[in-house]
């Protein structure tokens, strides 16, 4: 028996679980392992330095799994933006079945992907954004609560409210993101109208995740208080693992008149990437959601997906159905 939802049908996967796109983590090793486990693995396009490098990574992933997988393309305003359109063209040319978009208005890319026959998932941190994305014709929405890693928006609305509101306002199927790590979370998401869950931090802490084991061990040792919110003075909030660098950044940001230039060297992406390589959790900032408080081990992706699915099935069958008299 499996939990079949609109998401499993649309994406052609066995379990209603999606691996979120993660910078420096969403590589072929992890994405293929997640897909082989019956969930949806996702490569992160901008982890690759060029569109052609992404093409090779897609081909590498395809050689490692026969199951569907996707690519995340996050579109953000920057002084020197990457060639988003070229990355998008590679995704289409390589016949990737699913694309996850995030960030700024993705309408031109959504049209491209839809015209090419790809299934589209768009991440939203607010219901008003989800309603707009629904009008674009996306196939699936990912509703990200305040608990999530990375950028949760500036409204500070938790998943409990966002998901319930989504059930009231959306017709497009949606998955729940932010704070999900186990079977209980999957059942809760389904009860709130979601058709599945998206997990990033939980998949970071698996055997196949291409980051240093000491980072994974730091996640296991963490609790639900072990994240920090950065960039709040600049209205570009990011949730990261609470390490020495994050604490120092928060200290600087607390000063009246703090500017991004005051912290830019501390938060450089190269430092965070180096932390993943060396295992020095305090070398730079790296994303982590509040789900760190729910993670107690480092399983394989197969073990994790199977456990979440079987636990969710048992809760529904053995606990919830007994409540109906």
Which descriptors would you attach to this protein?
single chain, 325 residues, alpha/beta, 13 helices, 14% strand, globular
Task: Walk me through the structure.
The model has no long low-confidence stretch (mean pLDDT 96). The chain has an eight-stranded parallel β-sheet with strand order 1-8-7-6-5-4-3-2. The chain is globular, with a radius of gyration of 19 Å. The protein has 13 helices and ten strands. Helix content is 40%, strand content 14%. It has 325 residues and is of the alpha/beta class.
Please state the overall shape, judged from the principal axes of the Cα atoms: globular
Order of helices and strands: HEHEHEHEHEHEHEHEHHEEHHH
Count of distinct strands: 10
Main structural class = alpha/beta
Strand order of the largest sheet: 1-8-7-6-5-4-3-2
Largest sheet: 8 strands, parallel
Binned strand content: 5-15%
Fraction of residues in H or I helices: 40-55%
Distance between the termini: 24 Å
Task: List the SSEs and their pairings.
Blueprint: H1 6-11, E1 17-19, H2 28-36, E2 41-44, H3 51-64, E3 69-75, H4 84-93, E4 98-103, H5 107-115, E5 119-124, H6 127-136, E6 140-144, H7 159-169, E7 174-177, H8 183-191, E8 197-199, H9 201-204, H10 213-221, E9 227-230, E10 238-241, H11 244-253, H12 269-278, H13 301-320
Parallel strand pairs: 1-8, 2-3, 3-4, 4-5, 5-6, 6-7, 7-8
Antiparallel strand pairs: 9-10
Give me a quick take on this structure.
The protein is an alpha/beta fold. 40% of the residues lie in helices and 14% in strands.
């Amino acid at each position: 028996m499996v939990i079949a939802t609109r998401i499993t049908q649309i994406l052609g996967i066995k379990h209603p679980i999606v691996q979120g796109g993660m910078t420096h983590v969403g590589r072929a090793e992890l994405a293929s392992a997640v897909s082989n486990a019956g969930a949806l693995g996702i490569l992160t396009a901008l982890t690759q330095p060029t569109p052609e490098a992404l093409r090779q990574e897609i081909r590498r992933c395809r050689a490692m799994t026969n199951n569907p997988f996707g690519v995340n393309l996050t579109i953000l305003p920057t002084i020197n933006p990457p060639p988003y359109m070229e990355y998008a063209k590679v995704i289409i040319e390589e016949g990737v079945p699913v694309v996850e978009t995030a960030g700024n208005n993705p309408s031109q890319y959504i049209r491209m992907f839809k015209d090419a026959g790809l299934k589209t998932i768009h991440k939203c941190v607010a219901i008003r954004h989800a309603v707009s994305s629904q009008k674009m014709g996306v196939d699936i929405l990912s509703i990200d609560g305040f608990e999530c890693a990375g950028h949760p928006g500036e409204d500070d609305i938790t998943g409990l409210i966002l998901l319930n509101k989504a059930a009231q306002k959306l017709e497009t199927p949606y998955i729940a993101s932010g704070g999900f790590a186990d079977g209980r979370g999957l059942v809760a998401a389904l009860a709130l109208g979601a058709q599945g869950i998206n997990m990033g931090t939980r998949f970071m802490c698996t055997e196949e995740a291409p980051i240093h084991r000491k980072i994974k061990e730091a996640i296991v040792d963490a609790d639900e208080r072990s994240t920090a919110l950065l960039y709040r003075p600049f209205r570009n909030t990011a949730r990261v693992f609470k390490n020495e660098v994050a604490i120092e950044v928060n200290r600087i940001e607390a000063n009246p008149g703090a500017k991004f230039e005051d912290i830019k060297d501390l938060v450089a992406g190269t430092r965070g990437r180096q932390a993943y390589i060396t295992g020095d959790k305090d070398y730079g900032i790296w994303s982590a959601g509040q789900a760190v408080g729910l993670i107690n081990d480092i399983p394989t992706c197969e073990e994790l997906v199977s456990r979440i699915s079987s636990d969710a099935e048992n809760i529904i069958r053995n606990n919830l159905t007994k409540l109906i008299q």
